[in-house]
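Hi, here's the filled form for the chain we discussed.

Project: internal
Contact: R.S.
Residues: 303
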Amino acid sequence: MAALTEQPLLMEGTPWPDYGLVDSGHGRKLERYGPYRFIRPEPQALWTPRLADWDADGEFVPGSDEDGGGRWHFARPVPSEGWPLSWNEVRFTAQCTPFRHLGFFPDMAPVWDWMREQLDSPHPNPSPEGEGPSTLNLFGYTGVGTLALSARGAVTHVDASKKSVAQARENAALSGMEGRPVRWLVDDAAKFAAREVRRGKRYDGIILDPPKFGRGPNGETWRLEEGLPPLIADCRRLLDADSSFLFLTVYAVRMSSVALAGLLAEHFAGLPGTIEHGDLAMREEGEGGRLLPTAIFARWSNS
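And the returned structure, exactly as it came back:
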């Protein structure tokens, strides 16, 4: 029976050559993306910035309504088509998107490391194609996590956005990983998982990063509080006692990681291993750098 760890964990992201959290405070954050610096809103940065002057190439100014909106304002030219960055062996394109993101989520770096570690353990049931452990990336976005996992085996990448999947394929080409065993699928994540259950599929690992609200490729509506419990139930059916992990992240919701862990504990009671939960956070660069929380998570590991 999977044991629930009640004490929350902290998964800390640290700077690397192509990314760093330079400073934060007064509801904003200053980040380094390769040669460019950007300011973005960050409601959890309640403190005072450490630096007196934030010299940035661009800033995302949010809209006045609670549902989002806003636009980028640039102090200096920034390539509209994006520019290449890397995380370890994975190369990808960073770009200022209309949704304030820059084409990847840097706070996921410790998660990518953790998942690789889970897949490095022996697996009694490798994928039928003999390609090592198989993983499923739901809500896969632009594929940085998928490419990181593809070093360990076959990956099925699912996202409802044609544009995101196209960008993921381009990132694979940029990384020289076009030949990796990856299935790139434009599909509704919940419907795909349900079909995989009916097909009797299994995976060694599942990562899912669902939005608070979204729409599928055919207009399907996704609401986290309604859609997450049945999705987790289906994900559990795609795993067995020889699988390695499930990792769930949630952003921008009024919810505790304890709630996510409780959901996993209900559905994963029949599996061995451990259920843990906590926060993702980025560490500011430099001496005395503070931790800026970014998301909550819950994870199951068979170890």
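Let me know if anything looks off before we file it.
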